[in-house]
Write a structure and sequence with these properties.
Two copies of one chain form a homodimer.
Chain A (H helix, E strand, L loop, with lengths): L8 H19 L6 H8 L13 H19 L8 H18 L1 H9 L6 H28 L7 H13 L1 H4 L8 H15 L3
The first copy, chain A, binds a DNA duplex through loops.
Protein name (chains A, B): Transcriptional regulator, TetR family
GO molecular function, one term (chains A, B): transcription cis-regulatory region binding
Organism (chains A, B): Paracoccus thiocyanatus
DNA sequence: GTCTATATATTGATAGAC
DNA sequence: GTCTATCAATATATAGAC
């Protein structure tokens, strides 16, 4: 895959991110060398430093853009019944998690390899995502259609439960994605007392 | 913390494991050097190789003994009502997870750094632990005290939910452990349709 | 924008003295 | 059982040519 000189900036950047995401998720941040990432893309190691200040910033970019993508993609309508909104959140979260299992894994696993500043930034984004779910539970309580004594704890519990699908779900396995969503919806509906 | 020559084999072994567990959980397996572990214990790096074949075997020992401890500590009584057994499992799992958050974190995150053989061994132990929970759900269905259409999926969902407490629980935070258990018990009871 | 070449540091693991 | 010393490999990051 060795290439001669030549500029391909528009595609090299995304390729670097794709390779880094895949390798970091598979082997762990510290276990992956810049040389490995470069080799996967088909450039030399030094070239990576035209796209990222250093290895840590590359990881931070991956986590930040993942959370920003999620927040941008989630569309909620507070005027709808809370149970409908909860069902939509569940479908959204499971689908996006299964679409991007590597980014999800990294987001939970590699926060510790960020600088304090970057870590705080990602944590704030994640908090906004959690708040989006908690808002639904609070609305359900107000409506009287849910019974959730501690909405903050329930939020953390439900997100952990839903994200857990990435631990065991395998494409082409026993269950397709719609079936998984249906089963989890039964569990979640019961958990919130609906 | 430099020490002179002298044998302290009985305490050095556990100290190495403690230091490795703490450092691996905090920084990641690949990010931690044998020299760091040795420095934490107060011995020289070469000494570690009297206690472990290599770095990977040290990680495997930590994960294996963690799962074996869990399996040995969990005492179930199949003659009791399934809901009582489920409540006991929940208390056991949350308590042990919060007692040993580093081992729990490692067990979920660092499987990828094991050899295929070691990984299969740990996976088998984890599977036994999951089966212990699923047996309770199956019993609940049979009794008619629970409604769990897919006991395998519910098992994975509940374990992910319960283990998630290690992501946010902080000693001395808003909630004490009993309160956490009480809130999660409400969620779990609802999820299994009881 | 990408390359080659390299400095500087650190790694996992081993050999042999005590 | 622990130490010192060291090998060989590999790491991140930078400088300068093209």
């Amino acid at each position: 895959m060795a290439r001669t000189h030549g500029s391909r900036a528009e595609i090299t950047g995304p390729l670097i991110r794709d390779a880094a995401r895949r390798l970091f998720a598979r082997h762990g941040f510290a276990a992956v060398s810049m040389r490995q990432i470069a080799a996967e893309v088909g450039v030399q190691a030094g070239t990576l430093y035209s796209y990222t200040a250093d290895k840590q910033a590359l990881l931070a970019d991956l986590l930040r853009s993942h959370m920003e993508d999620l927040l941008a993609a989630w569309q909620d309508d507070p005027s709808r019944p809370a149970l409908d909104r909860l069902r939509a959140f569940l479908g959204f979260h499971i689908q996006t998690s299964l679409e991007r299992p590597e980014a999800v894994f990294l987001s939970y696993m590699e926060l510790r390899n960020l600088t304090a500043e970057n870590r705080a930034q990602i944590a704030a984004l994640r908090r906004r995502y959690e708040d989006a779910l908690e808002a639904i539970l609070i609305a359900g309580e107000a409506e009287g259609t849910m019974a959730v004594p501690d909405t903050r704890l329930a939020t953390m519990a439900l997100i952990a439960m839903l994200t857990g699908v990435t631990n065991w779900y395998r494409e082409g396995g026993r269950l397709d994605q719609d079936r998984v969503v249906a089963v989890y919806w039964d569990l979640v509906r019961g958990a919130v007392g609906a």
